[in-house]
Amino acid sequence: MKSLFIKSMTYSLFLLLFVSCKKDETKIVAGNGTAPVLTATQSTLVLDSANAKKTAVVFNWTASSFNYNAGISYAIQLDVAGNNFSGPKEVALNTALTKTFTVEEINSLINQLGLTPGTPGKIEVRAKASIGDAFSPAYSNVMALTVTPYQIIIDYPSLYVPGSYQGWDFKTAAKISSVNDNKVYEGYINFPDASTDFKFTSQANWNGINYGTSSPGTLNAGGGDNLHTDGAGYYLVKADTKALTYSLTKTVWAVIGTATGSTAAETPMTYDVASKVWTVTKSLAAGSFKFRANGTDAINFGDSKPASGKPVYGGADIPVAAAGNYKIILNLGTPGNYTYSVIKQ
Question: pLDDT digit string (tens) for 225-279?
């Protein structure tokens, strides 16, 4: 009888322990995260390099929940309006529920998105909440911002190009630059007159080396005759001060590709003298395109991968994620700092 009692108690204890262990193994499975609610202190930003360290905008958002006792990480995503966040710039913020952007910080991101400096453009912003790669993130409401960025200019070694096209005034003289600092310079200059004389100079005055010519296509480091071109137009200007050569190529720009509707027929762009950019507004399909000059691929711009808004000679086709009406802008006005933008209208 005693033995039976002991066996019964042993079994009961075993059963109790088994049930307790089963309870301990109960796991909480993460569910879909609740969407954060995003707010911003500004909806229109006009950025100025003089205020680089000042606050531009503050974003705040509510906490998300995944029904799971784990740390939630947040990020802010920015993309060009109409891109549906197909290639956003993302700023990771760990567990923070707020982000203050200085003028310098957000201007850098806007430049990377390819908006045209000095021109109002539209971006979209959202907050992202996540608990790891195994679970889908939760996204906030999308906020629309209108932003006018300034260009981040890299000051490459340059030659000045004073000439008759601007009254031989060094204050307004165009420049051509050597991005690789190898004595090979290039830039794009609009010559509005039927006949233009000019020179290359190493300084913004006549006190340095002044390059003229003694024969077409060659440079004379001692001065020589003025360089000259006939025919108004937008010229690709190149100079090699080591080989003492130069070239002038008149260019007219267009876009072409699957996004423009044809890989055989290009769509012309128009040069805006005031803003010094090439533009076209056109209905685009989802696809890609390139910029090219003079109806051939001899001079063409694509981009790097992923697209950065900075033209690359012979680069990859520029993607267009969604069909729509777009304004395309090509800015070759600052040597070594070329940009383009594709803005949904």
Answer: 999 999 999 999 999 999 999 999 999 999 999 999 999 999 999 999 999 999 9
End-to-end CA distance of the chain: 91
Handedness of CA 159, 118, 107, 86 (dihedral sign): negative
CATH numeric code, 158-251: 2.60.40.3620
Are the beta carbons of 127 and 38 closer than 8 angstroms? yes
CA–centroid distance for 7 within its chain: 77
Listed in order, strand segments (DSSP E) in 273-317 are 277-284, 287-293, 300-302, 312-313
Domain boundaries, the chain: 38-148, 158-251, 253-344
Residue that has been written with the tokens 């060094």 in this structure:
170
The architecture of the domain spanning 38-148 is Sandwich (2.60)
- Report pLDDT for 18: 43
CB–CB of 214/245 below 8 Å?
A: no
Give the whole-angstrom CA distance, residue 215 versus residue 225: 9
Element spanning 331, H or E: strand 324-331
Helices then strands (H, E): number in the chain?
A: 2, 28
Q: Residue 72 corresponds to which tokens in the numbers above?
A: 């939630």
Fold classification of 253-344 (topology level): Immunoglobulin-like (2.60.40)
What's the whole-number average pLDDT of the chain?
89
pTM, rounded to two decimals: 0.68
Neighbours of 309 (CB within 10 A): 21
**How does DSSP classify residue 75?**
E
Q: What is the pLDDT of residues 90-129, one digit of tens each?
A: 999 999 999 999 999 999 898 888 787 888 989 999 999 9
Report the candidate in 101, 107, 103, 147 with the shortest Cα–Cα distance to residue 123: 147
The number of beta carbons lying within 10 Å of the beta carbon of residue 82 is 20
Pairing of strands 143-148, 44-46: parallel
Let me know if the fold of 38-148 is the same as that of 253-344: yes
